Amino acid sequence: MRSFAFNVAYWALSIVYCLAAAFAALAPGRRATSWIIRRYVRRMVQAMALFAGIRLQVRGKERLPQGGFIVASKHQSWGDGFATYDQFDDLAFVTGDHLEKFPLLGTVLTKLGAIVVNSCGGHTARAALKERAADAHREGRKILIYPEGHLAKVGEKFRYRSGVWHMYRDFDMPVVPLATNLGLFWPQESSRKTPGTATLEFLEPLPTGLPKDEFLARLEAAIEGKTAELIAEATGRPVSPAVQVPTPHEVVLAAASA
Questions:
Q1: How high is the pLDDT of residue 118?
Q2: 171 assigned to some structural domain
Q3: Would residue 115 count as lying in a domain?
Q4: 186-191 LR contacts (CB < 8 Å, sep 24+)
Q5: Low-confidence spans in the chain with pLDDT less than 50
Q6: Is 174 among the domain residues?
């Protein structure tokens, strides 16, 4: 019953606020659109608590550096974006082009200054990421990216892509790893929700200037290690290291080379 109530609230809020944001996108600048989306996100987080019984606790905000930085987050739930966006006044975010399939949403994403890239990756996606992220960097905005580029099940992980390192290197910005166990309560895109207290935890920022391999290794170890701890904390049982699964693109490449 809780899941049904939340799903009704989810679609009602999404339709109302996205229509309002689409109309606001006709106005000059992005202030009006951003104002609406921030309230949409806040109402969604409130609906998660009220209808689905999913409450959020946030740890580690005192670790956030001053000025611009990149948040690199674990991604196990469709709710991750709402939960993280709600922690900042003005956040640019990297998202796949799959969101543009929803009517009017492409216009809203453009107005928000979202960094929309091809979900399949490759050189074109990397170039788009660099160009659009540079726009956000010039505006002094904080940037959210999911390094795996995919929604993972609890206990799974995808290969960490290099896009986050390219932004880190090009913009000389610290990267803040973000661990979460929200996937326990709102798994991936599932309509089923489980009541409980989910945790977001901002970890120690990675300093600028690290070489690529060291940076990616430290980022993955921080996110996956703390995510496993948060899952164990919420479930009361030990969690095995996350199992890496291939992306659809990697499966196709493997099949082609066989």
A1: 62
A2: yes
A3: yes
A4: 186/48, 186/52, 186/54, 186/77, 186/78, 186/79, 187/76, 187/77, 187/153, 187/154, 188/76, 188/77, 188/78, 188/151, 188/152, 188/153, 189/78, 189/151, 191/3, 191/7
A5: 249-258
A6: yes
